Amino acid sequence: MNAVGGLLIVAIELDLIGIKRLPVGNMLPAVFVTVALVWLFGLA
User: Fold this and answer.
1) Would you state the torsion angle of the CA atoms of residues 17, 20, 26, 32, taken in this order, to the nearest 10 degrees?
2) CA 39 to CA 17: how far, in whole Å?
3) I need a surface site. Which of 7, 12, 16, 24 has the fewest CB within 10 A?
4) Rounded Cα distance, 10 and 21, in Å
5) Global pTM?
6) Contact 2, 39 (CB under 8 A)
7) Domain boundaries, the chain
């Protein structure tokens, strides 16, 4: 969960400083998929 959040923050930073435009909105479902996987495998 921390890794997914960190990658989203890095993508937002890259967009803000003008290096690379990444579609952060398209990456938001990854947060929900991560939560589902953690719940499924009982890693929490």
Assistant:
1) -60
2) 35
3) 16
4) 11
5) 0.66
6) no
7) 2-41
* Residue type at position 36: A
pLDDT number for residue 10:
92
Other beta carbons within 10 angstroms of residue 17's beta carbon come to: 8
Backbone angles phi, psi at 24, to 5 degrees: -65, -35
For the chain, how many residues are written? 44
Q: Which residues contact 35 (CB under 8 A, 6 or more apart)?
A: 1
* Mean pLDDT score across all residues of the chain: 86
User: At which residue do the structure tokens 């009982």 appear?
Assistant: 42
